[in-house]
Design goal:
By secondary structure, the protein is mainly alpha-helical. It has one domain: Up-down Bundle (Four Helix Bundle (Hemerythrin (Met), subunit A)), CATH 1.20.120.450. It is built from six helices and five strands; from the N terminus they run H-H-H-H-E-H-E-E-H-E-E. Helix 2 runs antiparallel to helix 5 and helix 2 runs parallel beside helix 6.
Length: 197
Amino acid sequence: MIKLSKIALISFLTIFTLSISAQELPYAQIPNAPQIYTSGTIMGRLVDGLGFRFYWATQGLTEENLTFRAGEETRTISETIDHIYDLVFIFSNATKEQPTVYPINKAELSFEEKRTMILKNIEMASAILKFSEDKDFERYQMIFQYPQGNGQKLPFWNALNGPLEDALWHVGQVVSLRRMAGNPLDSKVDVLNGVRN
């Protein structure tokens, strides 16, 4: 029964998010806190924190900013966002109980399209997690499928210390890089309260 309601939730969120325009992206502010503490609501809130930080780390970036790199052997801001895209995609797929098939195709997407997809994948993962019971986390495995036919399966624990935490790490890099590029994060962003003052 829970499985059916989760499928209905994913279907609803997919249809709903496809109807939202780019001007109405999620995470300009953090959603209201859940009324109760469960493993699912705590995980969802953690993912919301990523969404809020990513939204503001990437808000107002220019084409010139996207090509900025701190040194010859470092990623540009755009390349860092590409990496965040992959990490969020992998994490979101785990919550949707879907495999991640390599290579992850995003070559034709513009920066705004990537940004939108990242935020919507974060939003969907958060919604799924908030409705999850402890036993559901056993199913949220990272499943990787590679072109040569081999694959890998890892438990949700690895999704936490792997792609989720890595995405947070790289959002911090975007904030540092944009400051170095002369376009610092909006000083009115309040990460403690999850709003822009």
